[in-house]
Amino acid sequence: GPLLTPSQSLDGAGGRRSGYITIGYRGSYTIGREAQADAKFRRVARITVCGKTALAKEVFGETLNESRDPDRPPERYTARYYLKFNFLEQAFDRLSEAGFRMAACSSTGTCAFGPEQGGPADDKIWTSYTEYVFCRD
User: Fold this and answer.
1) Strands (DSSP E) found in the chain
2) How far apart are the C-alpha atoms of 22 and 131, rounded to whole Å?
3) C-alpha–C-alpha distance, residues 92 and 100, integer Å
4) What was the pLDDT predicted at 1?
5) Is residue 91 within 8 Å of 47, Cβ to Cβ?
6) Alpha carbon separation from 47 to 12, 20, 73 (Å, rounded)
7) What residue stretches are annotated with the KCTD8/12/16 H1 domain (predicted)?
8) What is the greatest pairwise CA distance in the chain?
9) Is 88 helix (H, G, I), strand (E, B) or coil?
10) Among 77, 128, 137, 132, which residue's Cα sits nearest to residue 106?
11) pTM, two decimal places
């Protein structure tokens, strides 16, 4: 038969595996008095991956860090993987190349520190958590 690329792996019925992969990350930023002109964003520290082990390995290959959930069976779900790189665009490109599309996203933000909590005099430090849900039919 034809050779398959990693993004064309087959399920038992001879078609591409369908499923969901969720990408998540925590971020923080500081906003001073001049909110728009003075916002300082920190880089993404870690991108987490949630989904079936087989799909995550297919999409991310060697860039998937499995150290927090080693030897997970291929058809089981996990939320303990993360990527070895820190660029969301790279994760999105890999998912797109594997035939996934974004189905939903969600983000939360809270003020973690301000002057009243011992933070910088004029700044407020905000934290956020964002998730992107990708699916392949």
Assistant:
1) 19-31, 40-41, 47-52, 64-65, 77-83, 101-113, 124-136
2) 7
3) 9
4) 37
5) yes
6) 30, 16, 22
7) 19-136
8) 67
9) helix
10) 132
11) 0.76
What residues contact 56, with CB distance under 8 A and at least 6 apart?
21, 49, 64, 78, 81
List the alpha helices (DSSP H) in the chain: 53-60, 88-97
Q: What is the pLDDT of residue 10?
A: 52
Per-residue pLDDT of the chain (137 residues; tens, 9 = 90+): 333 444 444 555 555 789 999 999 998 877 765 555 556 666 688 999 999 999 999 999 999 999 988 888 998 999 999 999 999 999 999 999 999 999 999 999 888 766 665 655 566 778 889 999 999 99
The terminus-to-terminus CA distance of the chain in angstroms comes to 23
CB 48 within 8 A of CB 25: yes
Per-domain residue ranges of the chain: 20-136
